[in-house]
């Protein structure tokens, strides 16, 4: 810099470099906007090439297919993805486990991701490496406490007929009824026209809508809410009883009862089962690995800190950092 008789700070030099590169190469956002054009140019100049713009676009397309609640919408979403035939067949085989369009309507549950097991395993993490009786007692006490907390929650905080989370979900659907125009056919049937051009049929007596969201979730969809209000009814009364606070109370009414300590247990005299062999597995123990990793991270952090101090004093060339 001195040779060029230019007196600027290091930060100014980096900012100038970034701006120059942006002008030369374009920003990442700009480049993304050109991806389809680039693919088309490749196809034009190299006939017969297969170009797949995957990643996030495919992921989003797959989620749209998973969230589709009718078979017709599912087919539409699958065709949009332009998958090759093998992938198309594999996803279509049939998607009863991953797309709402093929879910059974009986359980009134349209959840795509079920984190119950992960959540439970995460909570019992502290107990999992303990000896068997200690572990079982830890889990039993945890469940005993949790069931009681759930019961107390319902009696102290929940004053409505519906459980709070379901009420929020229902409110979201009610907020969207402005998109729907209800046409009454008779006291139970409605035709609902939406501003997106779609049309659905609602049966208030059977509690169904042809979008299937009401049947799948047990909570009236926006089309159903529109018909319910038109009929001067309340959407809360049309939610499936599974989601009532009374049902929740019934589910949790059975308590896990306390037990006495080991000294008070009666002896059965039965032959105890043999414990499994506890041997050290091959390779480095997980604990040691973790120790090594944390030591390396600590060293790295110290190195960065030293560099920052040197840089502040103007003593550190860039290549010193790593
Ligand atoms: Zn609907």
List the helices and strands and how they pair.
Elements: H1 10-25, H2 28-33, H3 35-45, H4 56-67, H5 71-80, H6 85-91, H7 116-123, H8 132-156, H9 164-175, E1 180-184, E2 189-194, E3 199-203, E4 208-209, H10 213-217, H11 222-230, H12 245-251, H13 286-313
Antiparallel strand pairs: 1-2, 2-3, 3-4
Helix pairs in contact: 4-5, 9-11
The structure holds zinc ion (ZN).
Zinc ion (ZN) binds at residues 200, 209, 211, 213-214, 221, 223-224.
Domain SWIM-type: 200-232
GO molecular function, one term: zinc ion binding
Organism: Sesamum angustifolium
> Spans of 5+ residues with little confidence (pLDDT < 50)?
316-322
How many helical stretches? 13
Structural class comes to mainly alpha
Q: Write the element-wise H/E pattern from the N-terminal end onward.
A: HHHHHHHHHEEEEHHHH
Beta fraction: 5-15%
Taking the alpha carbons of the first and last residues, their distance comes to 24 Å
What would the principal axes of the Cα set say about the shape? extended
Question: What Rg do the Cα atoms give?
Answer: 31 Å
Rounded average pLDDT? 84
Spatially, the strands of the biggest sheet line up as 1-2-3-4
Question: What is the number of E strands?
Answer: 4
List all distinct small molecules, including ions and cofactors, that are bound in this structure: zinc ion
Major β-sheet annotation: 4 strands, antiparallel
Helix content: 40-55%
Describe the overall structure.
- This protein is mainly alpha-helical and 322 residues long.
- Among the domains are: 47 residues, no CATH class; 156 residues, no CATH class.
- Helix content is 48%, strand content 6%.
- It is built from 13 helices and 4 strands.
- The protein has a 4-stranded antiparallel sheet with strand order 1-2-3-4.
- α4 runs antiparallel to α5.
- The radius of gyration is 31 Å and the shape is extended.
- The C terminus is likely disordered.
- The structure holds zinc ion.
- Zinc ion binds next to α10 and α11.
- It comes from Sesamum angustifolium.
- GO terms for molecular function: zinc ion binding.
- InterPro entries: Znf_PMZ, Znf_SWIM.
- Keywords: Metal-binding, Zinc, Zinc-finger.
- It holds the Pfam family SWIM.
């Amino acid at each position: 810099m001195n040779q060029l008789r230019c007196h600027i700070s290091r930060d100014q030099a980096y900012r100038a470099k970034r701006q120059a590169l942006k002008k030369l190469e374009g920003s990442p956002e700009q480049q993304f906007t050109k991806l389809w054009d680039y693919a088309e140019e490749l196809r034009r100049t190299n006939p017969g090439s297969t170009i797949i713009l995957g990643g996030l676009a495919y992921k989003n397309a797959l989620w749209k297919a998973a969230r589709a609640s009718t078979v017709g919408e599912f087919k539409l979403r699958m065709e949009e993805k332009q998958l090759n035939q093998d992938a198309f067949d594999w996803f279509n085989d049939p998607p009863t486990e991953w797309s709402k369009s093929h879910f059974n309507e009986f359980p009134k549950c349209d959840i795509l991701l079920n984190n119950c097991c992960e959540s439970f395993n995460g909570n019992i993490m502290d107990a999992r490496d303990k000896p068997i009786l200690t572990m079982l007692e830890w889990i039993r006490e945890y469940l005993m406490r949790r069931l009681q907390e759930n019961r107390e929650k319902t009696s102290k905080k929940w004053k409505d007929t519906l459980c709070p989370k379901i009420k929020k979900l229902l409110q979201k659907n009610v907020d969207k009824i402005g998109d729907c125009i209800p046409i009454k056919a008779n006291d139970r049937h409605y035709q609902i026209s939406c501003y997106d051009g779609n049309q659905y049929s609602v049966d208030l007596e059977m509690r169904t809508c042809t979008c299937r969201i009401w049947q799948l979730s047990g909570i009236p969809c926006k089309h159903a809410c529109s018909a319910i209000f038109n009929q001067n009814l309340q959407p809360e009364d049309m939610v499936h009883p599974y989601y009532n606070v009374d049902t929740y109370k019934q589910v949790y009414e059975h308590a896990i009862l306390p037990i006495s300590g080991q000294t008070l247990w009666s002896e059965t005299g039965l032959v105890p089962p043999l414990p499994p062999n506890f041997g050290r597995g091959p390779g480095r123990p997980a604990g040691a690995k973790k120790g090594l990793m944390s030591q390396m991270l600590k060293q790295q952090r110290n190195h960065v800190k030293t560099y920052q101090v040197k840089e502040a004093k103007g003593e550190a060339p860039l290549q010193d950092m790593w």
